[in-house]
Amino acid sequence: MQTLSTEDYLKAIYHASQSASGTVATTSIANKIGAKPSSVTDMFKKLSDQKLVKYEKYQGVSLTSEGVKTALRIVRKHRLWESFLVSHLNFNWDEVHQVAEQLEHIQSEKLTNELERFLDYPTHDPHGDPIPNRALFMKSYNKILLTELPLNKEGVCVGVKDNSSDFLRYLDRRQIGIGTPILVLHREDFDQSLHIQAGNSTLMITQKTAENIYIKP
Amino acid sequence: MQTLSTEDYLKAIYHASQSASGTVATTSIANKIGAKPSSVTDMFKKLSDQKLVKYEKYQGVSLTSEGVKTALRIVRKHRLWESFLVSHLNFNWDEVHQVAEQLEHIQSEKLTNELERFLDYPTHDPHGDPIPNRALFMKSYNKILLTELPLNKEGVCVGVKDNSSDFLRYLDRRQIGIGTPILVLHREDFDQSLHIQAGNSTLMITQKTAENIYIKP
DNA sequence: TATCAAATTTAGATTAGCCTAAAAAATATT
DNA sequence: AATATTTTTTAGGCTAATCTAAATTTGATA
């Protein structure tokens, strides 16, 4: 059984190793967790003793298969709870993260599995991220960034990269959400900004915005 | 903001002061929490510094009004979650306590209030205990112990005193639950055991059982 | 009331998770 | 390649919540 804190570390390491390849650096985890690098080193040792990560001094860490499983169990709970908050408790997609960070630590297999059943076995959370099933398996459709969508090719928004409240609320105001059909009408060479059709409306978005929207072509 | 542990203490003190009158003794809390009396003394001092309890050396503690509020906020969450687990997640009333002990510490007013709305403002949890509303007010109907119900007077089971899994499952087997109509047919003077009609069936229960069942006459 | 037992508190230690400051290793730069 | 910079680790402390053992207070009993 893990403590609250070890669970946070495992999740952070899991997410970090998704975006980068190879081992995960001390500093990158320190930034995610909001702790000093020296504290992270301490925890790396502890996790290594528990065989949840492979750790070699000055070489960063990588999750063992047991570590991955533990991390996925937390990700599963996090995303199920986020789904519940949005679908039944009137939370908006920009409000769920902080609460789910707490709920993800609740220990009860029955609770998790019943919640999943109650939600009718959702495959994706409100941000479009895939939810591991009971066997911890998740399949994500192959998606691209909106920056990579060719001109005049129909696509659908299936997720976001940046989960910050600011970005999500910005998308709300632009009426872009999961499921919104998107068409790139024009790409400005000067600054890579895009004119797009999103649902029924035509609008302009910056490159920065486009790099944070996932599209299924 | 309280730590997990201070919340547990406040809740324990609250429950202890419900059953007994006057101040709450160090040892009684030690037993509930599962800690040594010396640890409890430490915590009493801490809670006293935070003005959540009134504490005088060797004299036990009592909750301040702020302490009562904090305790009731936890009780509210605990009972709402228990209700949710039973009504939507297929938990039996003997399985909810341990999970609710974790869920009661989740901090989010919005979550609590939306959960309450989702459950349609329940007034009592699965064990018949009253749920404090948003203003922390709860009204419990005036109930008596089954031992006090006069012969041949109709009553309804509205709660249980002992919340242990063992007792609750015993009641399940006897088909006694919240809402079951109860009639005392005979009281045995020798050992105070009762012959009762519970729902459609007639059965015998011991005095010990009867003192753990609440009845609304 | 004097004594004894039980309850409570104090003193001092332990553990997990964090910190700062200094040392060591890895990496980048000239 | 030598030096400078950045990253990481080590060493030593701190705090919250716990513990054990010893001391103190309360209150029950002879």
What does this structure look like?
The structure is a homodimer of 217-residue chains. Chain A has 217 residues and is of the alpha+beta class. Among the domains of chain A are: 4-63, Orthogonal Bundle (Arc Repressor Mutant, subunit A); 144-216, Roll (SH3 type barrels), CATH 2.30.30. Chain A is 42% helix and 16% strand. Chain A has a 6-stranded antiparallel beta sheet with strand order 3-8-4-5-6-7. The first copy, chain A, has a two-stranded antiparallel ribbon with strand order 1-2. In chain A, α2 packs across α3. Chain A is globular and about 55 Å long. The mean pLDDT of chain A is 96. At the A-B interface, α5 and α6 of A face α5 and α6 of B. Chain A binds a DNA duplex (30 and 30 nucleotides) through residues 3, 5, 25-27, 35-43, 46, 57-58, 60.
Structural key phrases:
homodimer, 217 residues, alpha+beta, Arc Repressor Mutant, subunit A, SH3 type barrels, six-stranded antiparallel sheet, two-stranded antiparallel ribbon, 8 helices, 8 strands, 42% helix, 16% strand, DNA-binding
Structural class of chain A: alpha+beta
User: What's the total number of strands of chain A?
Assistant: 8
Query: Strand-and-helix sequence of chain A, N→C?
Result: HHHEEHHHEEHEEEHE
State the largest interface. A-B, 20 and 20 residues
- Poorly predicted spans of chain A: none
Do you know the CATH architecture of the domain at 144-216 in chain A? Answer: Roll
Q: Give the biggest beta sheet of chain A.
A: 6 strands, antiparallel
Number of helices of chain A: 8
CATH class of the domain at 144-216 in chain A: Mainly Beta
Corresponding CATH superfamily of the domain at 144-216 in chain A:
Ferrous iron transport protein A (FeoA)
- Which descriptor suits the 3D outline of chain A? globular
Q: Quote the beta fraction of chain A.
A: 15-25%
Q: How far is it from the N-terminal to the C-terminal residue of chain A, by CA?
A: 42 Å
By oligomeric state, this entry counts as homodimer
Helix content, binned percent of chain A: 40-55%
Query: Can you give the mean pLDDT of chain A?
Result: 96
Q: Cα-atom Rg of chain A, whole angstroms? A: 19 Å
- The fold-level CATH name of the domain at 144-216 in chain A is SH3 type barrels
Spatial strand sequence of the major β-sheet of chain A:
3-8-4-5-6-7
